[in-house]
């Protein structure tokens, strides 16, 4: 459950770019990704999965659906009251439902979510609060466990550190620490979640995550098209796991 929430909260801090729009390398090339493929090779074998991406009239992502597994998808629904929902399904079964509330800077202010488990287990609920600096950079995130019997209990605090240029270099919590180094020449063009999430337009060249005294290093390399859009990424981990991502943009 913790990993699920982390992926929902900060996935874009590693791979996301600025909001979906037509503005790349000074031309009119679209940054809307219409599909992508994830190819993972690990000790247990190899899996390949392709996803289709859909948008609404305001260029907001509404669905990321697997084309290999029927019913496996993430659905976003937006309201007029500065909030949106995220529902994750596998085999058409709802696994996770969350609500995100937007502040007056069009950034995530707080969230509430429920993870659904198979009977006889009950579903868990979790909430979170986001804190920003004057540059709209996420500096702290608090995660709470909720219960109908007692007030919310603080479960985790994640702190984010930036360099002088405002680029994320480290995030820390009680049970892990992540740090990043970036390539200098190219910018990220990948947007796979709603642009209300905090984002980083730099491409990591190396990332490191330390848990329980063990550090896992990941080396990232990229390929680009003629419009300087990211069309491929290879992430090679020190434990032997290799993830290859490829992206198709709207023409």
UniProtKB/TrEMBL annotation:
Signal peptide (UniProt feature, chain positions): 1-19
Keyword match Signal: yes
Protein's UniProt keywords contain Signal: yes
Record key words, sorted: Signal
Stated name of the protein: DUF4595 domain-containing protein
UniProt organism field: Niastella yeongjuensis
């Amino acid at each position: 459950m913790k990993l699920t929430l982390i992926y929902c909260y900060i996935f874009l801090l590693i791979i996301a770019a600025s909001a979906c729009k037509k503005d790349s390398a000074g031309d009119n090339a679209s940054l809307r990704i219409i599909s992508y493929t994830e190819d993972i090779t690990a000790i247990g074998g190899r899996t390949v999965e392709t996803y289709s991406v859909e948008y609404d009239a305001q260029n907001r992502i509404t669905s990321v659906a697997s084309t290999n597994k029927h019913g496996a998808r993430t659905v976003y629904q937006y309201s007029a009251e500065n909030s949106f929902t995220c529902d994750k399904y596998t085999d058409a079964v709802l696994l996770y439902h969350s609500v995100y509330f937007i502040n007056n800077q069009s950034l995530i202010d707080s969230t509430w979510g429920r993870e659904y488990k198979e009977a006889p287990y009950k579903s868990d609920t979790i909430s979170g609060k986001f804190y920003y600096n004057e540059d709209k950079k996420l500096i702290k995130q608090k995660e709470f466990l909720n219960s109908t019997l007692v007030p919310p209990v603080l479960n985790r605090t994640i702190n984010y550190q930036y360099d002088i240029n405002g680029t994320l270099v480290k995030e820390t919590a009680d049970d892990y620490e992540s740090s990043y180094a970036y390539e200098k020449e190219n910018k990220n063009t990948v947007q796979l979640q709603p642009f209300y999430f905090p984002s980083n337009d730099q491409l990591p060249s190396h990332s490191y995550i330390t848990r329980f005294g063990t550090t896992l290093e990941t080396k990232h390399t990229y390929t680009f098209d003629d419009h300087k859009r990211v069309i491929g990424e290879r992430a090679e981990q020190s434990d032997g796991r290799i993830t290859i991502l490829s992206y198709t943009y709207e023409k």
